[in-house]
């Protein structure tokens, strides 16, 4: 049996969108290895509206329990609000290695889409103010633009005010 050929640049995130028939816009940019503020790099390299670009953050919500928060790159994740949205007592940033193992992506390229282990996901309510939001495409140097409702549907996410 012939092995299925992957499109160049394809990721589990783009594969998930394609399989679901969701329209999306890939935005590629030059990632610099020395960059550590990945959100600022996206804005600087692409010129996208910072309010429409969202970062994916993995949090720990208990022993061996992880979840995903999706917030604007211009803001920060409110861990108390994240915990409340998930109905748990506490949320804290997950260990980067745990986030990579769970998602199958590298830090700076973690996408809420196509994760190895689907996790409970909360998207900041501000995403609903936009026709299109941009999230990591599953590797550094790739953003994917899509409708917030499609993002929520494909990640089984809920919207809640989790950014500050």
Summarize the structure in short.
The protein is an alpha/beta fold and 164 residues long. Helices cover 26% and strands 24% of the residues. The protein is globular, with a radius of gyration of 15 Å.
CATH fold group: YbaK protein
Question: How many beta strands in the DSSP annotation?
Answer: 8
Question: What is the count of helical runs?
Answer: 5
Q: Which CATH class is shown?
A: Alpha Beta
Largest sheet: 5 strands, mixed
Quaternary organisation of the protein chains? single chain
Q: What count of structural domains?
A: 1
Give the integer mean of the pLDDT values: 89
Low-pLDDT runs of 5+ residues are 1-8
Tell me the radius of gyration. 15 Å
Question: Would you identify the CATH architecture?
Answer: Alpha-Beta Complex
Strand order of the largest sheet: 4-2-3-5-8
The SS-based structural class is alpha/beta
How would the global form be characterised? globular
| Binned strand content | 15-25%
In CATH, the homologous superfamily goes by the name YbaK/aminoacyl-tRNA synthetase-associated domain
Distance between the termini: 51 Å
């Amino acid at each position: 049996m012939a092995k299925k050929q992957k499109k160049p640049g394809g990721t589990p995130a783009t594969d998930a969108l394609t399989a679901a028939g969701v329209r999306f816009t890939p935005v590629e940019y030059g990632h610099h290895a020395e960059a550590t503020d990945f959100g600022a790099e996206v804005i600087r390299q692409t010129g996208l509206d910072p309010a429409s670009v969202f970062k994916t953050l993995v949090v720990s919500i208990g022993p061996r329990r992880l979840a995903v928060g999706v917030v604007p790159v211009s803001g920060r994740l409110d861990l108390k609000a994240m915990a409340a949205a998930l109905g748990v007592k506490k949320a804290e940033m997950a260990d980067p290695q745990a986030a990579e193992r769970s998602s199958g992506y590298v830090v700076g390229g973690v996408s809420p889409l196509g994760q190895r282990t689907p996790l409970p996901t909360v998207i900041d309510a501000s995403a609903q103010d936009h026709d299109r939001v941009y999230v990591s495409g599953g590797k550094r140097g790739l953003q994917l633009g899509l409708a917030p409702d499609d993002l929520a549907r494909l990640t089984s996410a809920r919207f809640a005010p989790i950014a500050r």
